[in-house]
Amino acid sequence: MSITVERPEGAAKTAVYAGLGSQLRGLLEGERDPLANTANAAALLFAVLPGLNWAGFYFLRGGQLVVGPFQGRPACVRIDLGRGVCGKAATARHTLVVADVHAFDDHIACDAASNSEIVVPLVVGGHLVGVLDLDSPLRGRFDEADAAGLEALAQLLAEGCDWHLAGIDGF
Ligand code: SME
To answer: How many whole angstroms separate alpha carbon 76 and alpha carbon 58?
Structure first.
């Protein structure tokens, strides 16, 4: 069965992320609780970006990535640093775009429907806080425009929350 989803490309995609930035700024206004803000951010991304089956956060707690606010099916709760797409992006502290998760060595399958994935590390003042993770049933769903757009949103969140409220390692 093929899935047909409208997918903005190029400049249209950049415009979508600009709109998401405005909406996220609005959600963060007057609120610095990281759980509240990442919960609303996950809901915003899942509602606005087409072709997703999971959008959410893992936080660095007790030396592992522990699942945080998300939208989608229940997911793996704990991921070791260096394992899976999430753990590798967290350790490397750079965004990983995976066009085909089945071709990615060590991918952790939480939902069999996922075919592509992007993971953006959340770094605050040089400290790793966690990762933002999006999954899609579409192969090759994410590209460099998604990476740039999501990195900008991750930066808004990094600066817009008081991370010591979330039990994150090092805070
Ligand atoms: N696929 C991820 C695990 C998290 S779920 O996608 C929500 C990984 O390989 O790290």
So the answer is: 10
